[in-house]
Design goal:
Blueprint (H helix, E strand, L loop, with lengths): L13 E4 L2 E4 L17 E3 L5 E3 L22 E5 L12 E4 L6 E2 L38 E5 L12 E4 L6 E2 L18 H7 L6 E5 L7 E6 L7 E8 H4 L6 E4 L4 E4 L9 E6 L6 E14 L19 E6 L4 E8 L27 E4 L23 E9 L3 E6 L7 E12 L1
Parallel strand pairs: 19-20
Antiparallel strand pairs: 1-2, 3-4, 5-6, 5-7, 8-9, 8-10, 11-12, 12-13, 13-23, 14-15, 16-22, 17-21, 17-23, 18-19, 18-22
Length: about 425
């Protein structure tokens, strides 16, 4: 029998692989264990033969340079909330991606998966999209400080925010944000001083003596801030106090209608609603009956009495004279019953220049006992300044020195404003 020998016989310390001998330096039965290189062999420090390869991240020295995974490390960042964006404050260096780590480092809140770059910005007082801005580019509402917590805001303290901040309201307007018992202003002057004026017109006020209501505000005359407290029209309002209603051919008026000289004065009182004021202005449309005497024909020199044929505006107790509408006898001629500017009797010293005088009688020679159809004073406005602030009501008296068969005065309309 013929014995066949293998093609290769390996000496001690080597093994046969695919018909060739390779060195088993460590006599372990393995070749280059842990050294998987396939290029030209070199001897490692342990005496193993290492065949160099490209270094890869596997915990081995693939390129036979005595270092493991060198040059392959990169920085990873903790992604605790799992939103795919890492925490720049929590880096980790490794050649393989650690669990719950990502290569991104732009998450500004790694505890909330709804916060990351590019997220929708919400109105929540935080930076949802990590652009270092809070609640940016959202529709903003205007809120107003409500220091007294009455639900009414101070327009002078606005705050723009997409959500209502604490201590604010969206309701205007609190005229005194330190007093929860009031929010509307008491007067047109307060509205003006707050900077809320929108020009002449009706404003809601809440003066202490009347409560919440619409008031006419003159916001332009002499600096503005005038509150209308009297807006009388006899045709619609009738006659206040003991004024007497008269229907004339051309107007409805309130008059004395006093058949005896004992009824020389008819009085109406108008509420100023406890609005503080130091000035008053007014206008009226008035009519004359018969032989009015202005300051002539022996009137008394006392404000409380029949001091002329006048419509007198006063306030307080004792009375303070504010203004007088005076009715003259004729349009000319020499007569102390005419207006002072055409030769009539001078006004009383306490009246001074606070009066207007006119006559409805166009004649310079005769006078009739009729209602003259010429409206008087309708285009004239007057203004008076007080020595001190007051909240007194206004008193308007129709005064004649004789009974109404001889002379009378009628009120069609009257406006009084205070500031």
């Amino acid at each position: 029998m013929r014995t066949l020998l293998p093609l290769s016989v390996c000496i001690l310390g080597s093994i046969c692989i695919l018909g060739g001998c390779q060195v088993d330096n460590s006599l372990s039965g393995k070749v280059d264990e842990g050294k998987p290189g396939t290029t030209a062999p070199t001897e490692d420090t342990a005496g193993e033969i290492c065949v160099a390869e490209d270094e890869i991240c596997d915990g081995l020295d693939n390129d036979c340079d005595g270092e493991i995974d060198e040059g392959l490390d990169q920085t990873w960042y903790a992604d605790t909330d799992g939103d795919g964006y890492g925490d720049p404050e929590a880096p980790a260096v490794d050649c393989q991606q650690p669990e719950d780590h990502v290569p991104d480092s732009t998450d500004c809140d790694d505890s909330d998966r709804t916060v990351y770059p590019g997220a929708d910005e919400l109105c929540n007082d935080r930076d949802d999209d990590c652009d270092a801005a809070v609640d940016e580019d959202l529709p903003l509402d205007t809120w107003y400080a409500d220091a007294d917590s009455d639900g009414w805001g101070d327009p002078n303290a606005p705050v723009e925010d997409c959500v209502q901040p604490p201590g604010t309201t969206d309701v205007l307007s609190d005229c005194d944000d330190n007093d929860a018992s009031r929010h509307w202003c008491w007067s047109c002057l307060e509205v003006l001083e707050q900077g809320w004026s929108t020009g002449d017109g009706a404003y809601t006020l809440d003066p202490p003596g009347c409560g919440e209501a619409l008031f006419w505000c003159d916001m332009t005359t002499d600096g503005g801030g005038w509150t209308g407290v009297v807006d009388h029209d006899t045709a619609t309002d009738g006659c206040p106090g003991d004024w007497q209603f008269e229907t004339l051919a051309f107007a409805d008026v309130c008059a004395r209608s006093a058949p005896t000289t004992a009824e020389r004065i008819r009085t109406a009182t108008f509420d100023t609603c406890d609005i503080p004021f130091t000035a008053i202005r007014g206008n009226a449309t008035l009519y004359q009956y018969g032989t009015t005497d202005a300051f002539g024909d022996f009137p008394t020199d006392a404000l409380d009495d029949a001091y002329g044929d006048v419509i007198s505006i006063t306030l307080g107790d004792p009375r303070t004279h504010l203004f007088s509408y005076v009715f003259g006898f004729k349009s000319g001629g020499s007569d102390d019953s005419n207006c002072p500017d055409i030769g009539g009797a001078a006004p009383h010293a306490w009246v001074g220049t606070d009066y207007l005088c006119a006559t409805g009688n166009p004649s310079t020679t005769i006078n009739e006992r009729i209602w003259y159809d010429t409206p008087l004073f309708s285009t004239d406005w007057w203004q008076a300044t007080l020595a001190a602030s007051t909240t007194d009501d206004l008193e308007v008296r129709i005064i004649g020195t004789h009974n109404s068969a001889d002379e009378d005065m009628g009120v069609e309309t009257m406006q009084l404003l205070v500031r």
